[in-house]
Amino acid sequence: MTAYHNAVSPTAAARPSALVQALREGAVAALVMLGLSFPILLFRTDQGPSLQLVLTPRVGLVATLCALAFAARVLVHLNAVRRERAAAARAANARTVAKGAEAAPGAVARIMGTIGVPLFLGMAITFPLLASLAAGSLNGARYWIDLGILILTYVMLGWGLNIVVGLAGLLDLGYVAFYAVGAYTYALLSTTFGLSFWICLPVAGVLAAFWGIILGFPVLRLRGDYLAIVTLAFGEIIRLVLINWVELTNGGAGISSIPRATFFGIPFERGEGGFAATFGLPFNAMHRIVFLYYLILVLALVTNAVTMRLRRLPIGRAWEALREDEIACRSLGINTRNTKLTAFSIGAGFGGFAGAFFAVRQGFVSPESFNFLESAIILSVVVLGGMGSQFGVAIAAVVMVGGPELLRHLTFTKAIFGADFDPNDYRLLIFGLAMVVMMVWRPRGLIAHRDPSIVLKERKAISGSLVKEGNG
Amino acid sequence: MRWENDPILTVEHLRMRFGGLVAVNDLSFKVGRRDVTALIGPNGAGKTTVFNCITGFYKPNEGMLTLRQTDGDAHLLERLPGHRIAQDARVARTFQNIRLFSGMTVLENLLVAQHNTLMQASGFTLAGLFGLPGFRNAEKAAVEKARHWLEKINLIDRADDPAGDLPYGDQRRLEIARAMCTDPVLLCLDEPAAGLNPRESQELNTLLLSVRNDHDTAVLLIEHDMSVVMQISDHVIVLDYGTKIADGTPEEIRNDPRVIAAYLGVDDEEVEQIEAEVGA
Question: Which residues contact A234 (CB under 8 A, 6 or more apart)?
Answer without folding.
Answer: A174, A177, A215, A219
